[in-house]
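Throughout our pipeline, every protein is held as a single compact record rather than as scattered files. This encoding replaces a full spatial description with a residue-level series of whole-number codes. The remainder of this section carries one protein's record, kept here as part of the documentation.
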Amino acid sequence: SEYNLALGAKRARSVRDALAGLGISTDRLSTVSYGEELPLCKELTEDCWMQNRRVRLVDLQRSAD
């Protein structure tokens, strides 16, 4: 579980860094890694595992409206 959380955190930081490289202020970005805690797909297949390696972007400013 710790390994998956750390791997997810590393992926999340990579996405954050890519967005920052496109000019988005890091003050507007935050990351969360759920590891295996919040799977999109629960089947024990490679295709399912690939679906769970995902990034979800949320515009918090829009969510508040």
